[in-house]
Write a structure and sequence with these properties.
Elements (H helix, E strand, L loop, with lengths): L2 H6 L2 H24 L6 H21 L1
Family: Belongs to the universal ribosomal protein uL29 family.
Pfam family, one: Ribosomal_L29
InterPro entries: Ribosomal_uL29, Ribosomal_uL29_sf
């Protein structure tokens, strides 16, 4: 998810999206621990998406 897409979302949508992405990231991490992923770079991109959304939420709280 790009930064421009994140900026267009409302606070409620951001919180909902953050929960979804965190859940899918933890599922992906668990499946990677059991058997290696075909593309482990997915973990990095999902982790960065979580950080982008969390940063935008923090920015809007101020």
């Amino acid at each position: 998810m790009k930064q421009s897409e994140i900026k267009e979302l409302s606070v409620a949508e951001l919180q909902e999206k953050l929960g979804e992405v965190k859940k899918s990231y933890s599922d992906l991490k668990l499946s990677h621990a059991i058997s290696p992923l075909e593309n482990p770079i997915q973990l990095r991109s999902m982790r960065r998406t979580v950080a982008r959304i969390a940063t935008e939420l923090t920015k809007r709280e101020q």
